[in-house]
Backbone:
């Protein structure tokens, strides 16, 4: 199909060695970087085929790739990607670096080049940690993590795998680029089209690649200190929190704390992310605006990062969930 041909063409541009597993094709792309880690496999699934969908498709893809006993088998990591996808020039480097991160930090259970929370940001070459699970459009797992998840996979009902995975990975995170390194074309459904044409869901077209030090900042203790530092220096927004209030605050230079409860977030989360879902790092979500001069820290009332003094301040400013 045209969608498959486009995806394979995109894959051929990757700067690493990846085995692509799809119906009727086996494409290999080689580079020096291939020696840095054991082989990857990239598995394509046709999202329009009802026999290759959601939970069953994921299990089929990862089981097929990880259990491969051919000479090119023994993958340490597998990247699942939907047919009709296109990848940025540095997508492979993103996956290589997050694979290294997974080897040193067990609190990272997956990575995904497509960011469902891709808000316009000045920092196109940064990445973040989030407890929001990936979509079937594409993500990477290590062999070890799939072994852990697959033990309970058979009991997951189709369409509910993201909820089940969230429960199975409590306290762990996925890594996403601030700006998506994957876009899914129109033939694969409206849900992902926005990533290529909505300015708030930009697809990275640049040539500047993420440097390895970006990923060292994602190690849990380092990342946690960064979030705590932002919370400590931020100005706390007064209640009530609304879409218009968040919009106004996002234009003001500095670091701003937006306290909220899960119920309150429904309206303005849709403004920021185009949907009601919002991933966090221990109840905190960091969003950059205005070419790096404005940072919002969205802070949920049950976050362990809320200190007693901050809780008292939030309560005094009218945030009832912090009382």
Residues:
């Amino acid at each position: 199909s045209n969608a498959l041909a486009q995806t394979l063409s995109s894959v051929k541009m990757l700067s690493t060695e990846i085995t692509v597993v799809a119906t009727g094709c086996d494409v290999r792309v080689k580079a020096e970087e291939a020696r840095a880690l054991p082989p990857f496999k990239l598995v394509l699934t046709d999202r329009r085929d009802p026999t290759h969908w959601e939970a069953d498709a994921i299990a089929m893809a990862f089981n097929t790739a990880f259990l491969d006993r051919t000479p090119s088998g023994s993958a340490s990591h597998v990247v699942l990607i939907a047919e009709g996808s296109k990848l940025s020039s540095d997508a492979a480097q993103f996956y290589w670096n997050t694979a290294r991160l997974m080897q040193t930090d067990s609190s990272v259970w997956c990575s995904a080049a497509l960011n469902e929370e891709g808000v316009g940001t000045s920092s196109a070459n940064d990445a973040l940690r989030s407890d929001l699970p990936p979509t079937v459009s594409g993500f990477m797992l290590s062999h070890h993590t799939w072994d852990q998840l697959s033990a309970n996979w058979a009991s997951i009902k189709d369409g509910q795998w993201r909820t089940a995975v969230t429960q199975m990975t409590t306290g762990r995170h996925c890594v996403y680029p601030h700006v998506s390194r994957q876009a899914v074309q129109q033939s694969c459904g409206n849900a992902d089209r926005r990533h290529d044409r909505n300015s708030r869901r930009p697809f990275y077209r640049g040539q500047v690649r993420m440097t390895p030090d970006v990923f060292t900042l994602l190690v849990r203790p380092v990342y946690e200190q960064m979030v705590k530092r932002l919370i400590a220096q931020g100005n706390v927004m007064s209640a009530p929190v609304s879409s218009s209030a968040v919009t106004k605050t996002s234009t003001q230079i500095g670091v701003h704390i937006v306290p909220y409860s899960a119920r309150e977030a429904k309206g303005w989360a849709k403004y920021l992310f185009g949907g009601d879902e919002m991933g966090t790092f221990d109840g905190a979500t960091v969003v950059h605006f205005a070419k790096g001069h404005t940072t919002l820290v969205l802070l949920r009332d049950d976050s362990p990062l809320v200190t007693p003094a901050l809780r008292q301040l939030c309560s005094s400013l009218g945030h009832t969930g912090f009382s």
